[in-house]
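=== RUN LOG ===
request id: a7f3
mode: sequence -> structure
chains: 1
length: 254
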Amino acid sequence: MFDDLKGKVVLITGASTGIGAAAARAFGRAGARVAVHYHASEAQARQVAADVGAAGGEAALFRANATKRDELVRLVDEVLRHFGRIDVLVNNAGNVFGRKPFVDCDETFVDEILQLNVRSVVTLCRAIVPVFRRQGGGNIINVTSIAARNGGGPGVALYAATKGFVSTLTRGLAKELVGDKVRVNGVAPGVILTPLHDRHTPQATLDALRATIPMGRLGTPEECAGAFLYLASDAASGYVTGQILEVNGGQLMP
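=== RESULT ===
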């Protein structure tokens, strides 16, 4: 399955933990060459790279602060120098930065969340499009969220808004880039057990969210991984662009 991903170069931001790490390992099992981006979690990133190699893929580590435009541009250049090309960009890096009422979000908080969740996606898409045009095509997969559709849970209105931006940008770019043979899609996880929730979501909130999910449980990063493989595979999804794949256990059925 997904045999056409073998040898493809996949750049995944925020690939050291959570959904990004699960996606990297899945691409490794498909025989892809994975650029594992990380910022602070070097030990975890090295483990992900080792797992990719053990699964039959190839991996290399790339460090960059995703809130810094110059570092993201350098990241793309470094991946190109190392692998010679990039076939798939997965914009996964993002964060909640804490749950707080909207009116309590000071300028520093607003700047941080916009820089990571919005500006990083804009910067990397702008950097990768010329690459894909030279190569004759490519794939962009943006990670959005169920919060983009329902406004999110308590204290994450601003996070939800940033993910709404990502979803809308995904659809707009899909139309704009279709003539360049670039497909642009998104994956929208629901409540997934990742370090993000470990840091920012109380157990009582998780329990309340679980009660709203028809499957009766929270998801795992590994259960999101197949969506990335599907969208990255031209053989499997060659006629799919501008779509947001919801992975939420039935919590939201748009």
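=== NOTES ===
The radius of gyration is 17 Å.
The first helix runs from residue 18 to 29.
=== END ===
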